[in-house]
Design a protein that fits this description.
This protein is α+β, with helices and mostly antiparallel strands and 199 residues long. It is built from 7 helices and 5 strands, in the order βααβααβββααα. A 3-stranded antiparallel β-sheet has the order 2-4-3. Strands 1-5 form a two-stranded parallel sheet. The mean pLDDT is 89.
Amino acid sequence: MTGARVHVVDSLEALQVLGHPMRVRILEALREPASAASVARALGEGRQRVNYHLKELERVGLVEAAGTQRVGNFVETRYRAAGNAFVVAPEVVWADPRRAEALREQQSLERLVMLGGRVQRDAAALLDAAAFDGEEIASASVEVDVHFRDEGERAAFLDEYVQLVRELCDRYGARAGDPYRVAMAAYPGREPSEGGDDG
């Protein structure tokens, strides 16, 4: 999976630039370094139009210069996408500062949000490895809802769960072999609102 590069879009300006469909196509064309002229030919678009969108992508860090090449009497700049895959950091669309304050006050919630972001980045890289490198990705995921009558039951469940996981990690964690990441998260279940946005 040496070719997997995931770029995190972490500014609203970069997200807005990324929102144009032509720019998404340009980023796909720049998985490997290429000039604006090469990208224009690959997409069947005019060079000036591609060059405009390319400069916008470069301005917000989604594209970077990757050297030059001589073509006849001209020297062309080559560009490449800042990543092979792009994920959007959730905080980009947090207009209300109360979210950041809640994360500062609740460390376990902050860790949950960070873990979600890491899983998203890792999954994007694995998807690219499968899609573009032909890799078979050995992965597993388990999702289950459990119900607790009170905080005592919840604490007991977590204690037992951590103990069982610790035994497995002690058995498999300190040995040679291919590394795998195992993540555990427990949080209250929430049904999405009908409008798809709970504010």
